[in-house]
Amino acid sequence: RLNRLAEFGTTIFAEMSALAARTGAINLGQGFPDTDGPEEVREAAVRALRDGRGNQYPPGPGVPELRTAIADHQRARYGLEYDPDTEVLVTAGATEAIAAALLALVEPGDEVIALEPYYDSYAACVAMAGGTRVPVTLRPHEGPRGGAADRRYVLDLDELRAAVSPRTRLILLNTPHNPTGTVLTPAELTAVAELAVERDLLVVTDEVYEHLVFDGAEHLPIATLPGMRDRTVTIGSAGKTYSFTGWKVGWTTASPELTATVRSAKQFLTYVSSGPFQYAVAEALRLPAAYYDGLRADLQAKRDLLSDGLAEAGFEVYRPQGTYFVTTDIRPLGEGDGFAFCRSLPERAGVVAIPNAVFYDHREAGAPFVRFAFCKRTDVLQEAVDRLKRLA
Ligand code: PMP
Ligand code: GLN
């Protein structure tokens, strides 16, 4: 008999990173930086290890220093007040936060609305919870000015409204959005919030790319909107913001009731994790504004290098407003199947990318789209672009 995860196979990130290792191709597939985060944060981790902080099981909800730093971050950036003792939960990366939130909040038969294309763990976690996923497809949209800068994926609010049923338990949001790079607008978020209030739904919002927004755009947490604070579980992660994806330190902020419920699942998944790294991330959260400005400026330049290069190589480019991914349409290259394209790309061009179709239930809607990561050194991106230009 098939188990409920059989349909998910091996995650595309493992498959594509293995392909990169096997072929020696440049890996613009799995999203991880090729340069580690700040030296002083690494030093903080070493100090914690050496001083014996966190080498034994930390407290279940996370070490108080980190919970306080997370609460301070939400207040300083967004004006959101959370009690570090009852409303903040530290998790093993955002991945565990997603799993714990869905396992805790979704009962068998409940429906979960997710924006498609969606990060691959969402579907697997909804399945593990016994829920049913209901995808609402973000649609590629050509802006009035045309061209890469104006092209984005948009949320069709009528489709979202039509997806809600009496069985809907929650809406799973992700902004800035992986893989499309879309940052949901205040109008889109307000519409989601109004719907959640009207239909009494919970919102779980994955905001791991909150600091990676470009062209002066602002990330707006849906928890700040009227009626949302106490029906929203907000998820963050140190992996993206501080370039330490291997540390696996994430968190949730939510009302005491929701936090206690998510914690009830988390305690049986990992109980706790990452002792010394929790202390280091508490220090990272106190980095000055200049750190975030530097991170954004660096990534924005890399976004432009890769987006312009891909456009010159013949791809139709969705220049992202956030995240470190560029989605492209491969049809101008005479291609239509992103899977086949990505499987042959190492041999044809020495580059690895991710087929967006894996992020869709409606695979045909994602078929001609391919995602490239730009959290890599400039010389690596330049070499990848040079190789891709020889494709045509
Ligand atoms: N959510 C999204 C949208 C992601 O892209 C990722 C990782 N790349 C995660 C969650 C997982 O984050 P973490 O590494 O903190 O588990
Ligand atoms: N989130 C990263 C991405 O989208 C990879 C995460 C993973 O390997 N599971 O590429």
Description of the molecule:
With 392 residues, this protein is α/β, with parallel strands linked by helices. The protein has 2 domains: 6-37 and 290-389, Alpha-Beta Complex (Aspartate Aminotransferase, domain 1), CATH 3.90.1150.10; 39-284, Type I PLP-dependent aspartate aminotransferase-like (Major domain) (Aspartate Aminotransferase, domain 2), CATH 3.40.640.10. It contains 14 helices and 15 strands. The strands form 4 sheets. It has a 7-stranded mixed sheet, sandwiched between helices. Helix 5 (120-128) links the parallel strand 3 and strand 4. Helix 2 runs antiparallel to helix 10, helix 3 runs parallel beside helix 10 (275-284) and helix 11 (289-312) packs parallel to helix 14 (378-389). 4'-deoxy-4'-aminopyridoxal-5'-phosphate (PMP) binds next to helix 4. GO terms for molecular function: transaminase activity. Keywords: Aminotransferase, Pyridoxal phosphate, Transferase. This is Pyridoxal phosphate-dependent aminotransferase. Residues 25-388 form the Aminotransferase class I/classII large domain. Pfam families: Aminotran_1_2.
